């Protein structure tokens, strides 16, 4: 009996030891850390729900259907993982099973093969500030949780917190700034990094109004928001339909987080979005500010007299300006303000 137990223990440790051997073959500490986390999460997700320290050979038997279900689970996760992130999670499992097979474990690494998800640097289409503001205004009229949904949208596009971080926010995460002119909201975001963003007194007051709603009294968890992922998804679909936002724009809730990408300097946007790399910010910024209307290929074909603006009435000219893209309007406002300042100083 003792001998049998020893064999089982050795058998169990062998799987764990080999997993660690596999992880340690990577030179980068960052890669080793990511692979270990991804592998641990996978085996905890499986029905066996085991830590890798306790795995035996029977536990590592998987079917292709298991990997497909895991990929689907990640796609539907409330953390709103990018496709490239999901591909990386799956790649760690695939690489491990190739290692298992080479080392003569009774597994078939082909069972872990699934189609990679498309590279989705644009997985959430661009949304502009005026559209985000309109969403917050429209949803306020929703008969169920309108105040909460409106404040949730405003928090999304002003703080750029992820959906999962917003849903996890508690009232204690908001503190009055010492100077008293705004509040500071702190959350733990992607990669377990703390992220603090200021919000206006007006927005904080909108959050407080949620507490006044009769339904809110049933909650005692100190959380600010109680919107399920399904509710949020349904809300976005209804708003896109109402506003006539075309499907090909691929606007999602995550698009609200990226509204801020087009504002400030690149470094300011990086800090606001809590990106580790400025290259990531550059990608989102380019999508947020992309405007083909002034492309060279179009300008080469234009043969319109510059004096055409003089033929418009004041109201027509104003309407023409307001019909431009948000970035163009913002720039024109700034220049108009500078012109008025110069006029008053002269």
From TrEMBL:
<comment type="similarity">
    <text>Belongs to the 'phage' integrase family.</text>
</comment>
<dbReference type="InterPro" id="IPR002104">
    <property type="entry name" value="Integrase_catalytic"/>
</dbReference>
<dbReference type="GO" id="GO:0004781">
    <property type="term" value="F:sulfate adenylyltransferase (ATP) activity"/>
</dbReference>
<keyword id="KW-0229">DNA integration</keyword>
<dbReference type="InterPro" id="IPR004107">
    <property type="entry name" value="Integrase_SAM-like_N"/>
</dbReference>
<dbReference type="InterPro" id="IPR050090">
    <property type="entry name" value="Tyrosine_recombinase_XerCD"/>
</dbReference>
<dbReference type="InterPro" id="IPR013762">
    <property type="entry name" value="Integrase-like_cat_sf"/>
</dbReference>
<dbReference type="Pfam" id="PF02899">
    <property type="entry name" value="Phage_int_SAM_1"/>
</dbReference>
<keyword id="KW-0548">Nucleotidyltransferase</keyword>
<dbReference type="GO" id="GO:0003677">
    <property type="term" value="F:DNA binding"/>
</dbReference>
<dbReference type="InterPro" id="IPR044068">
    <property type="entry name" value="CB"/>
</dbReference>
<dbReference type="InterPro" id="IPR010998">
    <property type="entry name" value="Integrase_recombinase_N"/>
</dbReference>
<dbReference type="InterPro" id="IPR011010">
    <property type="entry name" value="DNA_brk_join_enz"/>
</dbReference>
<keyword id="KW-0238">DNA-binding</keyword>
<feature type="domain" description="Tyr recombinase">
    <location>
        <begin position="122"/>
        <end position="298"/>
    </location>
</feature>
<keyword id="KW-0233">DNA recombination</keyword>
<dbReference type="Pfam" id="PF00589">
    <property type="entry name" value="Phage_integrase"/>
</dbReference>
<dbReference type="GO" id="GO:0006310">
    <property type="term" value="P:DNA recombination"/>
</dbReference>
<keyword id="KW-0808">Transferase</keyword>
<feature type="domain" description="Core-binding (CB)">
    <location>
        <begin position="17"/>
        <end position="101"/>
    </location>
</feature>
<dbReference type="GO" id="GO:0015074">
    <property type="term" value="P:DNA integration"/>
</dbReference>
<protein>
    <submittedName>
        <fullName>SPBc2 prophage-derived probable integrase-recombinase YopP</fullName>
        <ecNumber>2.7.7.4</ecNumber>
    </submittedName>
</protein>
């Amino acid at each position: 009996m003792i001998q049998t137990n020893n064999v089982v223990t050795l058998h169990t440790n062998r799987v764990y030891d080999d997993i660690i051997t596999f992880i340690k073959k990577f030179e980068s500490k960052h890669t080793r850390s990511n692979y270990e986390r991804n592998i641990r999460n996978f085996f905890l997700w499986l029905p066996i729900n085991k830590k890798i320290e306790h795995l035996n050979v029977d536990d590592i038997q998987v079917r292709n259907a298991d990997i497909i279900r895991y990929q689907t689970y990640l796609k539907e996760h409330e953390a709103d993982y990018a496709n490239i992130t999901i591909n990386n999670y799956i790649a760690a499992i695939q690489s491990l099973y190739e290692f298992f097979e080479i080392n003569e474990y009774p597994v078939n690494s082909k069972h872990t093969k699934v189609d990679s998800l498309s590279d989705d640097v644009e997985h959430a289409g661009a949304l502009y500030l005026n559209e985000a503001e309109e969403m917050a205004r429209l949803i306020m009229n929703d008969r169920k949780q309108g105040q909460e949904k409106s404040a949730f949208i405003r928090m999304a596009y002003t703080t750029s917190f992820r959906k999962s971080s917003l849903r996890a926010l508690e009232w204690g995460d908001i503190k009055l700034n010492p100077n008293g002119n705004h509040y500071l909201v702190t959350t733990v975001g992607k990669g377990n990094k703390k992220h603090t963003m200021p919000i206006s007194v007006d927005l904080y007051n909108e959050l407080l109004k949620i507490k006044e709603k009769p339904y809110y009294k049933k909650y005692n968890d100190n959380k600010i928001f109680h919107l399920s992922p399904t509710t949020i998804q349904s809300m976005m679909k209804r708003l896109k339909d109402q506003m006539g936002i075309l499907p090909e724009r691929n606007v999602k809730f995550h698009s609200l987080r990226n509204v801020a990408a087009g504002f400030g300097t690149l470094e300011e946007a990086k800090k606001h979005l809590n990106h580790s790399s400025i290259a990531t910010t550059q990608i989102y910024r380019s999508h947020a500010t992309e405007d083909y209307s002034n492309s060279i290929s179009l300008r080469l074909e234009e043969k319109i007299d510059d004096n055409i603006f003089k033929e418009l009435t004041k109201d027509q000219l104003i309407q023409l300006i307001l019909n431009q893209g948000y970035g163009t309007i913002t720039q024109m406002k700034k220049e108009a303000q500078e012109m008025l300042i110069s006029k008053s100083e002269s």
